[in-house]
Each structure stands twice: as structure tokens, then as C-alpha cells.
């Protein structure tokens, strides 16, 4: 359907399109002598040259016709003419209006009866003037809706071709309100006006035209479009759908109209694509980028950076990602503290002045202890990718250093470091002795200083 608000322009465009541009001067003259349609009943559908015009004011050129019908065929009765002909700014015909019928008024006696139609076999289509175009061979039920307790309505028809079966419907759910006329295997001669009259003489009519109309057969559908095609006879329809991952562009169903034209064009299936993902920051990298339906984008951060947010997002059926892009932030390790009685002797500069005092991944920090202290743990530690140091900072413990062997002697035990309270003793080479007996052993004191030097070894001869 086409929705146009500037109806004058539209009508003129349709008119020119239909006639061609060669007589533009005449066309403008025809429009000047045109007729206006305004203040129409809201339920009226106006059709001009097979196009429905949705507007409350329309100007139609001189010599042209419009067709009018009520919405919900049969539930409203059209009073007036269903085709209007414009002659010199005057409509030849009575502007129609729509009045409710029994189905709308809850079956009161003071309104015309509703006429509905059903097709147990065959097909039909409604034309712009409200006539029912029926494909030959169809079985058509015309249902006059009336409260049975108020009496029997009556069907009459203009066709002289044959008599028709009329009477209350049989099914329990219908027999008290549907007074039916059946046309079996419709033929061209069944065309005519069928009128239902109530006991009070109120009437409603339906125009039936039996027409052998076909629409062009539909082309072979290009995959992946899936179609269910009933047929190409007037009133038949085709429905369409697309497989998952595709979006239907166009209508999902179309019918073959009274005029042998399909109501719409065959739709297309368009693959669903999500917008491409383009990280603004070089630190964010894409390990995978697939923006078709069901595809994923997988993110990673440059080395030394941490991802915050979704590691992957998925392209959903509505063409949007199921999440937003993550961000990357630099991983840093908090500055380690220097051990007591020790210090940091070397470290790489903390990263980025603004970002403060953290150390980048891979940064190395080296420690040393004051003299008289032993370093326990790792002398150097590295900032790892999870923002923690490879090891705890070391500790510096008070220790006495190896004091050195005295001349002609050896100390025992032999170590690099001695704990406070440890003693050493001196063993002299053959021919040498320590001066005093018993020997006073040096002790490592709490401050990391030996209580005395190792006793010297002296020659026997000198003792
Ligand atoms: C105008 O309408 C009348 C009856 O409604 C009809 O007989 C007549 O032919 C119409 N004139 C034109 C020019 O269409
Ligand atoms: C319709 O009419 C019936 C009786 O005729 C009444 O019981 C019912 O309530 C009415 N319904 C409405 C919606 O007016
Ligand atoms: C993208 O993802 C879809 C759905 O998972 C898959 O069918 C398709 O093969 C993928 N395309 C590529 C290029 O990997
Ligand atoms: C989005 O899709 C990804 C990949 O399938 C999934 O891991 C993630 O949990 C989804 N996110 C949400 C918010 O559903
Ligand atoms: C840091 O990473 C190492 C491996 O690189 C792992 O053994 C350790 O458990 C991680 N620590 C934390 C706090 O995640």
C-alpha cells in the first residue's frame, strides 16, 4: 500500500504517469476543471487508477473516475455511488458514506444486514468498488447475518441464469444467525447483484463478478527465499519467508488481485549483517571478526594490557551485537617495598607519569641488603602479566660474614654467612697451634659482628 499525504500531487503524478507527458498543457487544464473529494466518511477506501489514496482531500482531474468502497466489506453498507466520474468540476454521482450493519450493531432490527462471504473451494478478490470478483468454478457462500428469532431474511438476485439454494446454516454455531445463499461452481452468468432483505425491508447487497483472471505466474524463486505459492489465479496468494540469518525485504505475502496484478513485488532475502567492529584503540585487537548472523568478534589486548568487558560478542538475528566492545587497560604492579635493612638498587622507571607509580609488565626490581645482612629470597623480581610480582620482595637478616682463614689455619664450619650465636673454631696446620688452651671460639653477635677475630695459629717453635 502507498501512503501519500499530498494527495493533489499524488493524483496528478498518477494521472501524468498513466497518460504520458506529451499533453502537459491539456493535463493542467483538466486538473483546473478537476473535482474535489473531501470530508469523506473515515471508513471509505478511495482508489484512483488502481492505487489506494489515503488522504482526506483529493482533487481528481476532469474526465477521471475514482472507486470507493467501505472497509470491512459487508460489515458496512455503502450508501451512494461506488464509482464517481468527474465532469467539469462536478461529480456525476452521489458521494457515498458507510453505515453499520447487524454484525456491528449487535443484531438490532433497525440496521441493514451484514453480508459476509466464504469460499469452501476456489478463490475471490474484492475490487476497488467493493464488488466481489470470483474465480470461475469456485463455491461461494454468501452469509446474511440476522437474528433468527426476529424472523427470516430473504435473498434476491439479478442474475437470471439459475436458482440458488438459500436457508439458515446447518451448523449449531451458525444456524441462528447466518442466512446463506450458495453459488456452486460459479460461472460467468452468475455475475450480478445479490441482495439480502430483512423482514422490516432493510437491505444490503453484494456485487458478484465471475471473472477468469490470472496473474503472471511467479518466477522461480531465487534461494534462499522460501515461498509457499497457492497459485496465480485471482484471489490466490503466495507467502514468503527467509531462512535464519536472513531478513525478508518486501512483503511476506501477496495476493493475485481482481485486475490480474499481484498486490506486491516478490520480496528478497537479505543476509543479516551486524555493523563492522572497528576498535578505536590500537591496544584492542580482533582475533576473529565475523559479522554475519551467528558470527563472533573475539577480542584480545596487546601484551601487558588487561581486557575489561566481554571477550567476545555475537551477531544476533536483529542485526545487532549482543554486547559492546571491551576496553584495554595497562597492567601494572604496585611498587614493591624495600626490605628492612636493605634497599632497592635498581628499577625500571614507573610507567607513564600520569598513571602514577605502577610498574609495567616485565619491569625488573633489584634489591640489596646493608653490610652485615644476608639477602633471603629473590634478589630481583619481575612484574607479571597478572599484575603481581614474580616473587615476594626479599628480606635482609642480620648475619656475620665469613671472617677469613687465619694464616696457617682453617675455620670451621666454613660458610658465607653465620647466624647470631654461631661459633667458629680454628684448626691449625700441622706444626702450628692456637695460643691459648682451651681456645676461645669467636661468636657471631646480634649486630652481625664477630665477638673477636679468629685466633691466630703459631709455630710450635714460637710457643
Ligand atoms: C452520469 O450519471 C448518470 C446516472 O448516474 C448516467 O446515466 C450518466 O451516463 C452519467 N454521465 C456520465 C457522463 O458519465
Ligand atoms: C447484544 O445483545 C444481546 C441481546 O440481544 C445482549 O445480551 C448483549 O449484552 C448485547 N451485547 C452487546 C455488546 O451489546
Ligand atoms: C561466520 O559465522 C557464521 C555463523 O556462525 C558461519 O556460518 C560462517 O561460516 C562464518 N564466516 C566465516 C567467514 O567464518
Ligand atoms: C554474547 O555472545 C557471546 C558469544 O556467544 C557470549 O559469550 C556472551 O555471553 C554473550 N553476551 C551476552 C550479554 O549475552
Ligand atoms: C599470576 O600468574 C601466574 C602465572 O603466570 C599464576 O601462577 C598466579 O596464580 C597468578 N596470580 C594471580 C593472583 O592471579
UniProtKB/TrEMBL annotation:
SMART domains: CCP, IG
Keywords of the record: Disulfide bond, Glycoprotein, Repeat, Signal, Sushi
Keyword Transmembrane: no
Gene3D superfamilies per UniProt: Complement Module, domain 1, Immunoglobulins
Location of the Sushi domain: 33-100, 213-271, 272-330, 331-398, 399-459
Cystine connections: 242-269, 301-328, 369-396
Domain Ig-like: 120-209
Superkingdom per UniProt: Eukaryota
Leader sequence residues: 1-24
InterPro entries assigned: Ig-like_dom, Ig-like_dom_sf, Ig-like_fold, Ig_sub, Sushi/SCR/CCP_sf, Sushi_SCR_CCP_dom
CDD domains: CCP
Name of the protein: Locomotion-related protein Hikaru genki isoform X1
